[in-house]
Amino acid sequence: MKQFPKLSLVFLFVFATIFSLAAQKTRFSPQVGVNFSAIDAKLQDITAESRVGWNAGFDLRLGERAFYLNPGLHYYSNTARLIKGVEGPDDVNFEDETTIQSLKAPLNLGIRLTGDNGLIGLRVKGGITPTYVFNVTEKEDFSFDKDDLNTFTWAANVGAGMDVLFFTVDLNYEIGMNDYFKDAEGSNNVLSLSLGLKF
Known about the structure:
The chain is mainly beta. It contains one helix and ten strands; from the N terminus they run αββββββββββ. The protein has one domain (3-197): Porin. 9% of the residues lie in helices and 61% in strands. Strands 1, 2, 3, 4, 5, 6, 7, 8, 9 and 10 form a ten-stranded antiparallel sheet that branches. The radius of gyration is 19 Å and the shape is elongated.
């Protein structure tokens, strides 16, 4: 099965679940944040080092009880530093930065540690996060593009959050479950901190 149909099935599952639970209490939380990736890889004569990025999207909280379903959809923009060494009498390293853009569709199960309607609410969550890479900004002096990455990857996800009135703060950690690059070993672990609103 091709990569794109796999992602389509994930999105269909997420939205089918959302509609099946539409009769329950639903909270909508748009969010923006920053993320930090931890991966270094050697691709032929290029070294790629992941750096800080930003993200924006939304989460849903479905259900009124202590346990709730927590799907979401988020756009991620990650920066990667590219380094190419040129061997010779005077060895030189050329550097540039590229941008990797992806969509993440986390599907988590959440647990409310305190009530959902008080001044402060605490919660934890865990689940899976499929990621679809749809664009890499190509650089003229580097042979690095979208074809160097696995288009579709999976990650385990754990996180914690706090609500203060209608504001939200979420800290999430993704643990990559397969290789991020096609021709180099190494998963992409991502730590993200997001701020949002709760409706």
